[in-house]
């Protein structure tokens, strides 16, 4: 990973922040984004203080022009082109498990889908002109996207959609695209319940370095552990 360029959306907190830091520790030049400009600056400073290389932009994956600008910036950062894309940005309106579809406001549904599904589509789509020959694309997903469970409303729908986006692009482009299901991770979005985000960063490093034959698949913790024994 040393010397490669990676884009991480939603890179200022939770999984995205830890993945950005882990990649930087491996020598990767990281371009990250988030909606909060101060959080972007703080995350970049944190990576640079640890000896890493990073650039950050305030960008919203709901806006394709923001994402286009992010990819153009990343492609010019240190090297020409983008080697790794992690379409991580996501949102959850409400408390996990307490947002049934039967009671979900239309505005919440639209915003969740626009961020978690269309945002993945936009991130991959806008990266395509800049991808290097051996580039890889990773999309964090979740079991809720393919398992029936009440109370997760548009979040579950959006994750199912994101997995379909993974499969669609994997069939149409000549770069590997894969989904990663790290299980429940203790992020702000999940009210701090689950695994520490730092515990699953090795899964992402593996996905962009060793998972050469994985394309169009959703890899969970069990499969990852089996593959890395």
Automatic annotation (TrEMBL):
<dbReference type="Pfam" id="PF00106">
    <property type="entry name" value="adh_short"/>
</dbReference>
<keyword id="KW-0560">Oxidoreductase</keyword>
<dbReference type="GO" id="GO:0016491">
    <property type="term" value="F:oxidoreductase activity"/>
</dbReference>
<keyword id="KW-0521">NADP</keyword>
<protein>
    <submittedName>
        <fullName>NADP-dependent 3-hydroxy acid dehydrogenase YdfG</fullName>
    </submittedName>
</protein>
<dbReference type="InterPro" id="IPR002347">
    <property type="entry name" value="SDR_fam"/>
</dbReference>
<comment type="similarity">
    <text>Belongs to the short-chain dehydrogenases/reductases (SDR) family.</text>
</comment>
<dbReference type="InterPro" id="IPR052178">
    <property type="entry name" value="Sec_Metab_Biosynth_SDR"/>
</dbReference>
<dbReference type="InterPro" id="IPR036291">
    <property type="entry name" value="NAD(P)-bd_dom_sf"/>
</dbReference>
């Amino acid at each position: 990973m040393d010397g490669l360029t990676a884009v991480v959306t939603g890179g200022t907190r939770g999984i995205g922040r830890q993945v950005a830091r882990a990649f930087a520790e491996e020598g990767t030049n990281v371009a990250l984004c988030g909606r909060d400009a101060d959080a972007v600056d703080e995350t970049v400073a944190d990576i640079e203080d640890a000896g890493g290389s990073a650039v950050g932009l305030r960008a919203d994956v709901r806006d394709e022009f923001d994402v286009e600008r992010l990819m153009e910036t990343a492609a010019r950062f240190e090297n020409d082109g983008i080697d790794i894309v992690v379409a991580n940005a996501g949102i959850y309106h409400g408390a996990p498990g307490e947002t049934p579809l039967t009671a979900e406001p239309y505005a919440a549904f639209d915003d969740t889908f626009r961020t978690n599904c269309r945002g993945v589509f936009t991130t991959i789509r806008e990266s395509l002109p800049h991808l290097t020959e051996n580039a890889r694309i990773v999309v964090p997903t979740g079991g809720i996207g393919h398992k029936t469970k009440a109370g997760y409303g548009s979040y579950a729908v959006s994750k199912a959609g994101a997995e379909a986006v993974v499969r669609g692009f994997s069939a149409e482009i000549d770069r590997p695209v894969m989904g990663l299901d790290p299980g429940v991770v203790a992020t702000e979005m999940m009210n701090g319940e689950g695994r520490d985000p730092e515990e699953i960063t090795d899964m992402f490093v593996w996905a962009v370095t060793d998972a050469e034959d994985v394309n169009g698949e959703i890899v969970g913790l069990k499969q990852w552990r089996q593959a890395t024994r």
